[in-house]
């Protein structure tokens, strides 16, 4: 055994954290008052790209930041479902297929006006 191994007593940690099958390190952060979670996630992702982590190191968010990212992935689907629900309600209200489309077609210009006013 001494031809290919070597041992010596050293101090080591009692446990190694894992995420799935891989060893993991947890970095925690708190938000500065007035800073949005989305801005913090963008800043952390930018810092990760800037330091040039090797491809063998993968980062991911957990907790509130993970829930925030998951909600952003479903957001386009939720907007389409809301528009469809509005179309159905307007169709029932006006008893027509055309009038809801004319009303919904004003949403983009209304959104631009809201952003310009803000």
Structure commentary:
By secondary structure, the protein is mostly helical. Helices cover 53% and strands 3% of the residues. The chain contains 4 helices and 2 strands. It has a two-stranded antiparallel sheet with strand order 1-2. The mean pLDDT is 89.
Mean pLDDT comes to: 89
The biggest sheet, with number of strands, parallel, antiparallel or mixed sense and barrel status, is: 2 strands, antiparallel
Distance between the ends: 74 Å
Q: How much is the radius of gyration in Å?
A: 26 Å
Count helical runs: 4
Shape by Cα distribution: elongated
Strand order of the largest sheet: 1-2
Strand content: under 5%
Q: State the helicity in percent bands.
A: 40-55%
State the secondary-structure class.
mainly alpha
Number of strands: 2
H-E order: EEHHHH
- Which blocks of ≥5 consecutive residues have pLDDT under 50? none
